[in-house]
Design a protein that fits this description.
Length: 263
């Protein structure tokens, strides 16, 4: 995973609890930066990284994710005191997604009327993925999908992996069927959930999950009193995801059940 340095704060994006912003980086690229000092702090960044890279491993469309160094001196040129404080609180390593100029939010109603919605295969793969990583934030109220050059792009996974907000007995929640899949924006399009289960289970292996968790920066770990070291914290993520991958997948059966009540 690449690391870049933020060189200019361009503009805030008035969407999402993480108070993202468009920034320019030292590779001349533009990125949507998620601040470590906002919202749920490092845990939102961990979820963004881990869930996003699982999506990439599953061959789902997602912008490039980079680690991004934020210099607190950037706050000096910002007139807004709230932005100044956010930059200072997020000094150091943050996360960002490649900025997609001209992209628009996915509209399921427009897609349904025009017949331009995602294919049953893609919709089913995305529903499977979100159920696996327990992503509660892909609903009609907040699609978190962009249309860019007529292709879907998945964004904003900071609300995934919600088990890590309370590590007590987290292993007992591995078989969580994820009942909130009933609210998934793509569930009406997802007609191939069983096929998606077979496809995705082959693409996402225990080794893939271990390699993805290894990408989490050390500085984001070790903030929970239940872990003696950051290494224990990292191992807990790996253990949870690897065990959740094992069959049978209650979350798939729950998605199938929820969809049967829609059609």
């Amino acid at each position: 995973m690449r690391t870049v340095g933020a060189t200019r704060y361009v503009t805030p994006l008035h969407e999402g609890g993480s108070l993202p912003a468009i920034v320019e980086a030292d590779d001349d690229g533009m990125y949507v930066l998620k601040f470590r000092g906002a919202g749920q702090g490092p845990k939102a960044l961990i979820a963004e990284l881990v869930a996003g890279e699982i999506a990439r491993a599953a061959r789902l469309p997602i912008p490039e994710i980079v680690l991004i160094e934020l210099d607190p001196d950037l706050a000096r040129t910002e007139p807004d005191p709230e932005i100044q404080e956010l930059i200072k609180a997020s000094a150091g390593l943050n996360i960002a997604l490649d900025y997609l100029p001209g992209a628009v939010m996915f509209d399921p109603l427009a897609a349904g009327h025009s017949g331009s919605g995602p294919s049953p295969r893609l919709a089913s793969d995305i529903v499977w993925f979100d159920a696996f990583v327990t992503n509660v934030d892909r609903t009609p109220r907040n699609a978190n999908m962009l249309m860019w050059h007529r292709r879907l792009q998945l964004i904003d996974h900071g609300a995934a992996l919600y088990f890590h907000h309370s590590w007590n007995e987290y292993m007992q929640r591995i078989a969580d069927p994820f009942t909130r899949v009933k609210d998934h924006i793509l569930l009406p399009f997802a007609a191939e959930l069983e096929e998606a289960d077979a496809r995705m289970s082959k693409l996402i292996s225990s080794r893939v999950l271990e390699d993805i968790v290894a990408l989490i920066p050390e500085v984001w770990l070790g903030n929970d009193a239940v872990f003696a070291t950051s290494g224990e914290n990292r191992e807990a993520y790996t253990r949870y995801l690897q065990h959740r991958l094992t069959q049978p997948h209650a979350f798939v059966q729950e998605a199938i059940r929820a969809r049967s009540q829609l059609v």
